[in-house]
Design brief:
The protein is about 5% helix and about 65% strand. By secondary structure, it is mostly beta strands. The chain has a 19-stranded mixed beta barrel. The longest helix is centred in the N-terminal third of the chain and has 8 residues, at about 15-20. The radius of gyration is 21 Å and the shape is globular.
Length: about 280
């Protein structure tokens, strides 16, 4: 396994997962079964307010090739094919969403001990080309993430990031929106035995001079039960409890309340994921 700086999307990922992952105000049910041919079939239903959404996914793995065929209630079909280790450290991903003829995209990812590169391009006449690269080690890494619209000849995205990892802490700094916003984050493992960690994220937008501060924590009550909480400078507080009763099967209850308008109804989300 390559132990390098990872991809650009890995910069700040730990604190993003701590602060935002599994927090939701929807009701979601996901059930996975396996056919005799080895196909993993996952049926998912989500209730967002008065809107009901659903999809069925058929996932097949053969050696280093993974094919995902997903049918959604919005009358779209998403096909994704992934080839791992076509060459050492190389992953290729092809995706297409029917009936949109302009949705085809191919992506290449390459991981090295001292670099991580990802590039993707839409399969259209005038595609948008995305490139991200990171150089460094698993201790200190710097990278950039850019998108170029070949039709207009303009860069639609220019981001840059820096990531520092040392023992039980991770610090990240990113410059986004073509330099209009900056984001600093910090993740610290307090107690590895109980998976206790704290994290903070500070964002500043130069054009509006707006600041946002978000802090959060997580803690395992036992090997199968975790609690998480976060609050931001706007006064929005979130909390969740997640229990795993079998490997891959989780039950999550999450809630959100506006502490500056406590009279408003709190938002409650439920998620149930069942896997054999």
């Amino acid at each position: 396994m390559v132990k390098g700086p990872g991809l650009y999307t890995d910069i700040g990922k730990k604190v993003r997962d701590l602060l935002y992952k599994d927090h939701n105000s929807d009701h979601k049910l996901s059930i996975t079964t396996h056919s005799p041919a080895g196909v993993a079939i996952t049926s998912t239903g989500t209730k967002k307010g008065d809107l009901l959404l659903g999809d069925v996914s058929f996932l097949l793995k053969q050696k280093n090739i993974t094919t995902d065929f997903r049918v959604s209630t919005d009358n779209t079909v998403l096909i994704t094919a992934t080839v791992d280790e076509a060459a050492p450290g190389l992953k290729s991903i092809f995706s297409f969403r029917a009936p949109d003829q302009n949705s085809g995209k191919i992506e290449l990812q390459y991981l090295h001990d001292y670099a991580g590169i990802s590039t993707s391009m839409g399969l259209t006449q005038n595609p948008t080309v995305n490139f991200s690269g990171v150089i460094g080690t698993n201790l200190l890494a710097a990278g950039t993430d850019v998108s170029f619209d070949t039709k207009s000849g303009n860069f639609t995205k220019i981001n840059a990031g820096l990531n520092f990892t040392k023992d039980d802490l991770i610090a990240s700094l990113t410059l986004n929106d073509k330099g209009d916003s900056v984001n600093a984050s910090y993740y610290h493992i307090v107690n590895p035995l109980f998976n206790t960690a704290v994290g903070a994220e500070v964002s500043h937008k130069f054009s509006t001079k707006a600041n946002t501060i978000t802090v959060g924590t997580q803690h395992s009550l036992d090997p199968l039960t975790m609690v998480k909480a976060r609050v931001n400078s706007a006064g929005i507080a979130n909390a969740l409890i997640q229990h795993q009763w079998t490997p891959g099967s989780f039950f999550t209850i999450s809630g959100e309340v506006d502490t500056k308008a406590i009279d408003k109804n709190a938002k409650v989300g439920l998620a149930l994921s069942l896997k054999p």
